[in-house]
Every structure is written in C-alpha cells, then in structure tokens.
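Entry for the shared binder. Reason: the reviewer on the internal report wants the predicted structure included alongside the sequence.
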Amino acid sequence: MGGRVTAVSRNERYGFSKPTHPFITLLAGLGVEGDVHAGTTIRHQFRMTYEPDLPNLRQVHLMHEELFEELAVKGFDVSAGQLGENVTTAGVDLLGLPTGTLLRLGEEAVLEVTGLRNPCAKINDFRQGLLGEVFALDPVSGEFTFKSGVMAVVRAGGTVRAGDTVEVELPPPPHRALERVKRGGPSRRSTVHGRTAAAAPEPYGEMGFRFASVRAVRVQSCGGNSPRGFGTSPYGPNRPGQGA
C-alpha cells in the first residue's frame, strides 16, 4: 500500500504554521534541514527547557491531505503547512499505521513513525473551533480522537518534494496502535516506546481514514506544561475548552 506526497514545508523559526517549499531535505537522525524542530534531542519549544536531553521523536510531522477536505466540509479553510506539518500526504491512512511503520518517501528518504501528534491548544488561535475537529470525544466509544497527523524520525536522508511516492512498510507483528507522542524516548524498534495504547484505532471515519483514539488524555499546551485548553464540561475534565 502507498500514496504520494502533495506538499512539503519547513520553518527555521518557531511558529504554528510552516511555509511550503519546492522540496525539503531530510537528514538521518535529525529531521528536516533548516527546520526548527530538527535535532537529535527534543526540540519542542518549551519542553526542551526542562527536559533538554530527551531523544527527539518529533523530527518530522506528517499530515494527511484528506483531513483538509473533511475540515472544508465543516467550514474550515486549511491548506498544506498551516497546521505545522512538514510532509502532507494523500492516499495513506497515517492514523491507522502501527508504531514503528517505515515510510519510504521518494527514492531515498525513510521515516519511522513514532506516534500521534498531540494537538496544540494554539489550533484554536489559528482557527476558532478547529481544535474540536481534530481532537474530540467520540460519543459512542467514550474515547478521544486524534486527527492532526503523526510524528516520525528520519532513518535515511534524502530530498522529498510534492509528487514523490510514499511506500508503507509495516513492522513485524504483533502491531501496536499509535499513541500520542507526549515526550521523548526510544522508538519501538529500538527498545520500548512509552506505554501501550489504550485503544486500537477506531473504524474508518467519514473520509475513509481511521481516527486513532486513546482514553483520558490532555491536549498539549504550546505555552508550557500546564493543560491549557481544558475546563469543566458535560464530557468531564479532559476535554478541549476554556483554560483550567
């Protein structure tokens, strides 16, 4: 199974969005050349101030283009790079991939998927109400769904541009569902990557792609360690909303 790259983006400064470019260069063990999140150790703007030596599992952020189509139906105009991803794809069920999946981009580059992107509370600053569309409570399962892409590390470098193929290589079974990347640590192929996911991916969503979900989580604050974006609601304390 496979798909294609539809856009590539990078930003040399910290910011919510990343401008698109004709191509990006992936560097093994580092990330995207010239991107602020590239590095061997954690590059999250605030986490690295108190956990600077943790391995960087967020070297590359991938987003499925199908999400933009889904959001457009709901009145949100979002395009490649605006949600901060480095690589925008089409035809790949990113959220349904197991931990440790290899993605071969173009002729040379290889990424290893490390987990789900933990939605940042600044998504609502970009488009009011958008956070609830990429991080929401499933009323049927009682679990939270994450739809804002996946994170990966670079196993083999190379140039990547729009139109390149994306080939998917699944890890040996048993497969483990993706969980959110909330801190650094070794990937599954090395030793152990965090705790086990609380639930396997949910059935395919309205655009034909899975909604990966876990129970009782907090959306990541871009401004530090506090759980900004949460408050009291009919859904309980772990929901996107007003600051707690």
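Summary line for the report: Residues 66-73 form the longest helix (8 residues).
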